[in-house]
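Good morning,

Attaching, inline, the backbone tokens for the sequence recovery test we're adding to the shared suite. The designed sequence is right after.
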């Protein structure tokens, strides 16, 4: 069964760690805009470059899903509208869609981001990000397919 895994949460929530663990257990392609931007030598905070890259990675994701390849996306998926759009398009491509929401308290996000140091995100930025983030509620979570791996 072809699957799309959406890794949802703010910076420092653990999306990449969780995605890497998942990729070790399941035959998937993991796509992380942060890693691509860094690998291309681009500024992680260049919003226009990130938007272009995410559009390209999404196009590639749909192609992979149509070919029967499961994919993990680490976009963060801050809005319910974006999550719904990706869920619908992936299902149209024949995939099951799973949402991994990393619900991490702000204080822990601040601690983790400060510990890793790269990219440099301040506590004030994290607080601003949290204002824009739309956490999925139970109704939204029920629209996604059940998580296939109980060990997460």
């Amino acid at each position: 069964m072809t699957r799309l895994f959406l890794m949802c949460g703010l910076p420092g929530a653990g999306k990449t760690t969780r995605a890497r663990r998942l990729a070790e257990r399941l035959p998937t392609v993991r796509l992380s805009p942060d890693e691509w931007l860094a690998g291309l030598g681009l500024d992680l905070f260049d919003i226009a470059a990130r938007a272009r890259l995410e559009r390209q990675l999404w196009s590639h994701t749909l192609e992979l899903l149509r070919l029967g390849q499961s994919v993990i996306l680490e976009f963060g998926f801050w809005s319910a509208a974006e999550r719904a759009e990706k869920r619908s398009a992936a299902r149209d491509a024949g995939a099951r869609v799973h949402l991994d929401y990393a619900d991490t308290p702000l204080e822990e996000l601040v601690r983790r981001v400060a510990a890793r140091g790269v990219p440099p995100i301040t506590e004030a930025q994290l607080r601003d990000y949290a204002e824009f983030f739309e956490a999925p509620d139970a109704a939204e979570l029920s629209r996604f397919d059940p998580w296939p791996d109980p060990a997460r």
